[in-house]
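From the methods appendix. Each design record in this collection lists the tokenized structure first, followed by the designed amino acid sequence. Records were kept in a plain field format so they could be parsed without special tools. The example shown here is representative of the layout used throughout.

RECORD:
FOLD TOKENS (333 positions):
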């Protein structure tokens, strides 16, 4: 394609008014694109602010149900649960992960009873239940893969039993998608979807999240033997292909904004439902700067989320979900 020369071509013609800009706009963000991650804690009728994530709170199950009602009312299609587990329940073998009545499963059941129309996504990884903060079982200093996968399958089955619509394996063990899919089929949970954290990087942007779920103190070492090296791109494509082959319905790139190139490559290569997780550190950066008056909060929120659509994502996990949904609603979008 050749582009006509000035003045035959003036790109500013299609930017001259709001009407013209709306006509030629290539991407749209809508409430239907949002998944809202929420933090669940024990107790009744309480919430505790997460210091490093202004505006985000840990909620007791009854309050999570109210949050889910609010989200459904706003048109947000899915809510994703992360439990803040009491340290006394964290063990080396992470048994609490497959307790049918653990915090995450209680919250899932409560939400599905009160607000059945919202999709509940449950995170599959051992870190909230692990005495050493890792996503897998540790033996002699090694995060062991296959034993972890067995534990993850038990965890996933308990979550499906509790009524989760979507399972989000965020552990980055090899072979977990295939094992979970086989387990789900065998147990009759044939319609439970898997949104695989397929390309999850060993990122420093998860810092505030680890505070929110109380995993920072517990974590010994780093997650570099299972999460991806930020230097790699081709490997992300191989991981996505592997997970889709093993039975993932949707795939995720995480974190989001520093990895938009990966989102685009994944979407172009596979055309599968592709999600990005705008993680806690990304949220904290934008909120923190906005609180100081250094950035226009509402505008950077929207610009950052629209960027994911432009990069080819079908949806975004974001702590901004309710705020963004309210903005879109106020605009009549
Ligand atoms: C752990 C998990 C993490 C996040 C989601 N699931 C943190 C980690 O891998 O250490 C991060 C989410 C965020 O930072 O918002 N399985």
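DESIGN:
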């Amino acid at each position: 394609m050749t582009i006509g020369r000035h003045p035959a071509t003036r790109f500013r013609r299609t930017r001259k008014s709001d009407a013209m800009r709306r006509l030629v706009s290539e991407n749209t963000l809508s409430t239907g694109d949002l998944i809202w991650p929420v933090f669940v804690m024990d107790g009744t009728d309480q919430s505790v602010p997460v210091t490093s994530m202004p505006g985000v709170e840990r909620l007791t199950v009854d309050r999570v149900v109210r949050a889910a009602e609010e989200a459904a009312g706003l048109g947000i299609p899915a809510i994703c649960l992360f439990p803040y587990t009491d340290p006394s329940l964290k063990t080396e073998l992470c048994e609490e992960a497959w307790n049918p009545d653990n915090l995450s499963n209680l919250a899932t059941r409560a939400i599905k009873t009160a607000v059945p129309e919202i999709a509940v996504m449950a995170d599959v990884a051992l870190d909230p239940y692990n005495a050493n903060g890792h996503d897998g079982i540790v033996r002699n200093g090694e995060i062991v893969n296959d034993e972890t996968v067995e534990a993850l399958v038990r965890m996933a089955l308990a979550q499906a039993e509790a009524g989760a619509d979507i399972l989000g394996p965020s552990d980055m063990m090899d072979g977990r998608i295939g094992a979970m899919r086989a387990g789900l089929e065998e147990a009759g949970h044939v319609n439970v979807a898997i949104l695989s954290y397929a390309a999850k990087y060993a990122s420093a942007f998860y810092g505030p999240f680890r505070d929110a779920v109380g995993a920072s103190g517990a974590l010994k070492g780093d997650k570099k033997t299972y999460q991806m090296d930020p230097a790699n791109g081709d490997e992300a494509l191989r991981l996505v292909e592997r997970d889709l082959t093993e039975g993932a319905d949707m795939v995720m790139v995480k974190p989001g904004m520093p990895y938009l190139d990966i989102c685009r490559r994944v979407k172009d290569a596979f055309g599968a439902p592709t999600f990005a997780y705008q993680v806690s550190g990304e949220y904290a950066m934008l909120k923190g700067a906005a609180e100081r008056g250094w950035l226009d909060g509402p505008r950077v929120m929207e610009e950052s989320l629209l960027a994911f659509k432009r990069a080819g994502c079908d949806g975004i996990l974001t702590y901004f979900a309710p705020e963004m949904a309210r903005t879109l609603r106020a605009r009549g979008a």
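APPENDIX NOTE: The mean pLDDT is 97.
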